[in-house]
């Protein structure tokens, strides 16, 4: 499987290598509302979820310096709708998609280089094309995420 | 627990410990979401790419100067 990359970024599936561990240890998310959870997931849970196939996590690095720019986690999912429940049966339709379960920019990198808009860039140039590529062989018609109920965060995703 | 951690309950695909109505709610939210502004996203990406170009150029210059 071809992992997403472009002129700037390379992407690697989290595998617990020496470099991965180093990047994970120095990864910080300074976002006031969601930062801690995203950082803790990467540091404490991501490798375990990898081993049990609950999630696939990818580390994004700047090709030029090999610095870790961010990470994202994907899992398969679906949304059911038009449910009709009778005493004996439930009928429904489903819409398959990919859940962007975790997505964070490494604040250490962003602050060091004073660069903004990395989230937009990673989503637009790496994540969306990666999922589109999978949609050629699997039924996928959306990328979705469950945003925490913070207005500022929801507005960011809506834009 | 994350909503989709347990994908199957009562033989019905749904979002784990959340009510089955959630699927309908998500579907409605998708249908009613504001139109996606691709041009705005592209502008933000181009700005970030320009900044990355500058960073890389600076690193290259420093590398040449150090030799």
Q: Mind explaining what this structure looks like?
A:
Chain A is an alpha+beta fold. Chain A has one domain (9-158): 3-Layer(aba) Sandwich (Aminopeptidase), CATH 3.40.630. Helices cover 36% and strands 30% of the residues of chain A. Chain A has helices at residues 18-26, 35-51, 107-113, 118-134, 151-158; strands at 9-13, 56-62, 68-85, 90-105, 143-144. In chain A, strand 2 (56-62) and strand 3 (68-85) form a beta hairpin. The model of chain A has no long low-confidence stretch (mean pLDDT 88). By secondary structure, chain B is mainly α. Chain B folds into two domains: 1-33, no CATH class; 36-67. Chain B contains two helices and two strands. Chain B has helices at 21-32, 38-66; strands spanning 8-9, 12-13. Chain B has a two-stranded antiparallel sheet with strand order 1-2. The chains are: A alpha+beta (159), B mainly alpha (67). Chain A binds chain B through residues 8, 54, 62, 64-65, 75, 77-83, 85, 90, 92, 94-95, 99, 101, 113-118, 120-121, 124-125, 142, 144, 146, 158-159, and chain B through 2-5, 7, 12-14, 20-21, 23-24, 26-27, 30, 33-34, 37, 40-42, 44-45, 47-49, 51-52, 55-56, 59.
